[in-house]
Specification:
Strand order of the largest sheet: 2-1-3-4-7-8-12-11-10-9
Distance between the termini: 24 Å
CATH architecture of one domain: 3-Layer(aba) Sandwich
Number of helices: 24
CATH superfamily of one domain: Response regulator
Radius of gyration: 26 Å
Strand content: 5-15%
Largest sheet: 10 strands, mixed
Mean pLDDT: 89
Low-confidence stretches: 213-254, 664-697
CATH class of one domain: Alpha Beta
Shape: globular
Structural class: alpha/beta
Length: 697
């Protein structure tokens, strides 16, 4: 991180310099640590510039010019998500900064950092990556400016973009540059995007609007074979099925002979087209998500002016041996000494946690894990995980015998995969668990159960908690897993994510219905009682998601009150770049189904600060500051019968002394008397806070 450290190591220069918007924490939950240690293991000298001052180039020249390239990322979180709330208000803190201090990174950090590096070193190659670059790899809707922006590669003026977990790409790139290849000639790496003037010679172009044709809606459709047939332009496709008939599988017309398929690419609507036409934006989003399986995806291209933004297919997932190698590199497992005793909140959260897997096949439309890490689960070996627990036990300061989490993007997808490699390689379903668990999915939780049992049996380990999100729709297929979880790995409260109650928003989220929640709850309660433990499920929900009406939120509020839940905080939907739900938000159409001019399924979108505030108020129905807003809404909705002072009412007719309507962005001030009045009216049951900073971003 400094010239002094380079001198101590005897380095005249770094081979690769990584620039990150996070503080440098040498822990495998931090992307820069993984990339840096992986390159180091290949023999490269790696420097890290963490949270540089971006107003000039001074910090960017501190280590000199690298011999190979600069690698630039915003950090573990998208810089806009990190800095702004879902209501576009500036956050006061940053969990990835010493002392939790806010404002230590610029908006759209990847662009700003790249521009400063280019100012300082005009001829040094620049490679961008991480979550911010990954989710902006094509033209994307930007919630913070309410417009479609071009692919980030152009604004960053970088040479190459790497998307997803990029160990394979970055190691190959470093070796090829070290051999003297020019970065402009390296166009065959999976998981990369770059600009080119014309398509490669001899390749066949496929217009994306000629591809999108859903198959027949059957109770048991076959999702694994392409459907032959004539191509039709998007405006001439036949009318869709009624909205209440769920399209479970997307099939594609293939107009390219099999012998030419490896040299064909899909041309998406241009940047100008998707910027000006929400229908084409929704269509492009649908095609991009359908071309996400690394075993059958083809390159995508999108015109930006007179040039092509070219996306190679996703990287092949790491094998178990490769995952073990990556996670067992010699991490210090603590922040860099330059930070002294400063507390870094994100590090405190994950200090004693362990990643056992990557990827997610859930396909939730509001989430970007699948777009970034892929839907094929990448697993570590049991032995590797147990060795890491022992490393934490023996070497990490402050360890008290408690592992805070064994998980990843989800808690219980470890070693779950398609039963057939052939089927997996051909599948284009966006989710393996929606609208129901795929019959080809192996749901055997025994490898994970065995891992839990061996982990908690290690000498010196008092407790192993599971803090990653549990997919309860999978867990109910393994009652023994629920028993293990409830009796040994839960600390009184277990958070799970129904996200919504009504079918309208659930179908737009691709989340299971509440019947699944109740089945999981029955198992969890039974096994908790069997162990003599009083434990509770804490469900959390999203406000203002596409497809959610005021009536849906009212139904949810009544359910929360009937079950005695009071949310400390709520999460409103934030349209992150490239997410399917973001395409819904922008276009008002449902890209989970075929997009046409006349027959696309419309999606109701809660828009505007007022409606978003109302939806959050329904989730915090117990907050007296929200009662005036809720009374007004209930009267408007014809539900004034829910205003009153009885148990069956949602909000009382009185307003406690010392309370006032909540103004945007401020917590109301209440007197002790006012709090007691509200408590007398409402059921008394604790609900945990939904944490904003995810462990694995």
């Amino acid at each position: 991180m400094s010239r002094e450290e380079m001198d101590l190591l005897g380095w005249d220069a770094c081979d690769v310099i990584l620039v990150t918007g996070d503080a440098y924490v040498d822990h495998p939950s931090f992307g820069m640590a993984i990339v840096g240690r992986t390159l180091e293991a290949q023999g490269f000298r790696v420097g890290i510039i963490a949270q540089p001052r971006w107003q000039d180039t001074a910090d960017f020249t501190a280590l000199g010019a690298p011999t190979l390239f600069f690698g630039i990322t915003a950090g573990n979180m998208d810089s806009m998500v990190n800095r702004y709330t879902s209501d576009r208000k500036v956050r006061s803190d940053d969990a990835y900064t010493p002392g939790g201090e806010g404002g230590r990174r610029p908006d759209r950090s990847v662009i700003v950092y790249s521009q400063r590096v280019r100012e300082a070193y005009r001829d040094v190659p620049i490679v961008i990556g991480g979550i911010e670059a990954s989710l902006r790899r094509i033209a994307h809707f930007d919630y913070w400016s309410e417009k479609v922006r071009r692919g980030i590669l152009l604004d960053a003026k970088a040479d190459l973009l790497m998307y997803g977990n990029a160990e394979r790409q970055i190691v190959d790139l470093a070796h090829r540059l070290a051999r003297g290849e020019a970065i402009g000639g390296i166009t065959d790496l999976r998981g990369t995007a770059f600009m080119r003037d014309v398509p490669p010679s001899g390749w066949m172009e496929v217009d994306s609007t000629h591809l999108d044709l859903p198959g027949k809606v059957d109770p048991h459709p076959d999702p694994y074979a392409a459907t032959p047939g004539a191509t039709l332009p998007v405006d001439e496709l036949p009318a869709d099925k009624p909205a209440d008939e769920m399209v479970q599988v997307v099939r594609f017309v293939r107009d390219v002979p099999a012998e030419h398929r490896e040299h064909s690419f899909i041309l998406l609507p241009s940047f100008d087209a998707v910027r000006d036409d929400p229908v084409l934006y929704a269509h492009a989003s649908r095609i991009l998500h359908a071309e996400a399986n690394p075993h059958n995806a083809r390159p995508l291209a999108q015109r930006h002016g007179n040039r092509l933004l070219w996306l190679n297919p996703p990287p092949i997932p790491l094998q178990t041996e490769e995952m073990d190698h990556v996670y067992e590199l010699p991490y210090a497992r603590r922040p860099h000494p330059a930070y002294g005793d400063a507390r870094i909140p994100a590090y405190e959260m994950i200090r004693f946690s362990i990643s056992i897997q990557r990827g997610c096949f859930g396909g939730c439309t509001f989430c970007s894990i699948t777009e970034h890490e892929g839907r094929i689960i990448q697993n570590r070996s049991e032995a590797s995980v147990l060795r890491e627990i022992e490393t934490i036990r023996d070497s990490v300061p402050g360890f008290t015998g408690v592992i805070s989490d064994l998980g990843g993007p989800t808690a219980n997808m470890y070693r779950l995969a398609c039963k057939s490699r052939e089927v997996e390689a051909a599948c284009r379903r966006p989710s393996c668990v929606y609208p129901g668990v795929c019959p080809n999915l192996n749901t055997d939780h025994w490898p994970l159960i065995r891992l839990y049992r061996k982990a908690r049996a290690l000498p010196g380990i008092k407790k192993v908690f599971i803090a990653s999100g549990v997919r309860y729709d999978l867990a109910i297929h393994s009652p023994e897993y629920v028993r293990e979880l409830a009796q040994h790995h839960t600390g009184g409260y277990l958070k799970i994510a129904p996200e919504a109650l009504s079918e309208g928003p659930l179908s737009k989220m691709m989340k299971p219905g509440m019947d699944t929640y109740y089945r999981f709850k029955e198992l969890f309660d039974r096994y908790s009682k069997e162990a003599g433990k009083e434990q509770y499920l804490i469900p959390y929900f999203i406000a203002a998601h596409p497809g959610t009406t005021d009536e849906d939120m009212l139904e949810l509020a009544l359910w929360l009150k009937a079950n005695g839940f009071r949310a400390d905080q709520v999460q409103a939907f934030l349209p992150s770049p490239m997410a399917t739900a973001t395409a819904m938000y922008h276009s008002g159409l449902n890209p989970l189904r075929r997009i046409t001019r006349a027959g696309s399924e419309p999606v109701y979108i809660p828009r505007g600060a007022g409606q978003r505030r109302l939806h959050k108020a329904f989730l915090r129905y117990h907050d007296a500051a929200n009662w005036p807003l809720l009374r007004e809404a209930l009267k408007r909705m014809g539900r004034a019968d829910l205003i009153g002072n009885g148990k069956r009412h949602l909000v009382p007719s009185f307003q406690p002394a010392g309370t006032a309507p909540a103004s945007p962005g401020r917590r109301p001030v209440r007197t002790t008397h006012a709090r007691q009045e509200a408590a007398d009216f409402l059921p008394n049951r604790r609900v945990a806070t939904r944490t904003r900073h995810k462990k694995k971003t």
